[in-house]
Design the sequence.
């Protein structure tokens, strides 16, 4: 076995194609336009990640590093958004939670597909930026909140679906997710995670399986964004 992912060969759901055709989305100053679900989402950010990084101070390098990764759109979210639109019949009218909302695109996609979306991030600035983006793009804005997933503030069993994209980039993020999923996922619910292939996150899928989840790698595809492309895997976890 070459790596831990080989234990989970992609299942390639029938009828789903991410459809990454045409020029990839790219930032034009502080504006990014993304075509999804037959419409255009327009994202704004006040500053890019590099500008925010220059102001990172020593206080941001404590136990909880506060790096401004939220200020970038990551390719994994583009695959997740396409999946949410493809699953609109499943998520429409259902309570759903996004973990790590960033600039808000996946939360907006879920809401546009008919879901009743709550979205959280650890950073207040991300929450504010995502809420502003949603207000500019949607008539009904998801509920955005600042939350630490090590201390979930929602009632147990609230959400039929949980989702996130590119949230496993540090090992310290992995262990709290199993109790979070156990707490917040409703019986019969599903979890969707879109993650780029990184060595740091390879062991987590076996860990979820050992914790009793049915782990399925649904799809693996190269996602183009700006001047590069990244291999992203789409995962589903169920009990």
Sequence:
């Amino acid at each position: 076995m070459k790596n831990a992912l080989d234990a989970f060969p992609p299942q390639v759901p029938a009828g789903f194609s991410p459809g990454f055709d045409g020029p990839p989305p790219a930032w034009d100053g502080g504006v990014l336009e993304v075509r999804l679900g037959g419409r255009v989402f327009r994202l704004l950010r006040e500053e890019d990640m590099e500008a925010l990084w220059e102001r990172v101070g020593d206080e941001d390098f404590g136990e909880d590093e506060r790096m401004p990764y939220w200020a970038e759109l990551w390719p994994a979210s583009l695959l997740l958004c396409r999946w949410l639109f493809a699953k609109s019949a499943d998520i429409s009218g259902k309570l759903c939670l996004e973990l790590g909302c960033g600039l808000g695109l996946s939360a907006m996609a879920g809401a546009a597909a008919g879901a009743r979306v709550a979205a959280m991030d650890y950073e207040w600035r991300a929450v504010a930026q995502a809420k502003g983006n949603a207000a500019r793009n949607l008539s009904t804005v998801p509920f955005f909140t600042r939350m630490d997933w090590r201390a979930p503030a929602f009632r147990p069993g609230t959400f039929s679906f949980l989702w996130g994209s590119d949230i496993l980039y540090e090992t310290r993020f992995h262990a709290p997710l199993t109790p979070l999923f156990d707490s917040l996922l409703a019986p019969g619910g599903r979890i969707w995670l879109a993650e780029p292939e990184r060595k740091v996150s390879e062991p987590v899928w076996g860990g979820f399986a050992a914790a009793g989840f049915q782990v399925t790698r649904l799809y693996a595809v190269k996602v183009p964004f700006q001047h590069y492309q990244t291999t992203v895997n789409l995962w589903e976890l169920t009990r």
Observations:
- The two ends are 26 Å apart (CA to CA).
- The first strand starts at residue 31 and ends at 36.
- The chain has a mean pLDDT of 89.
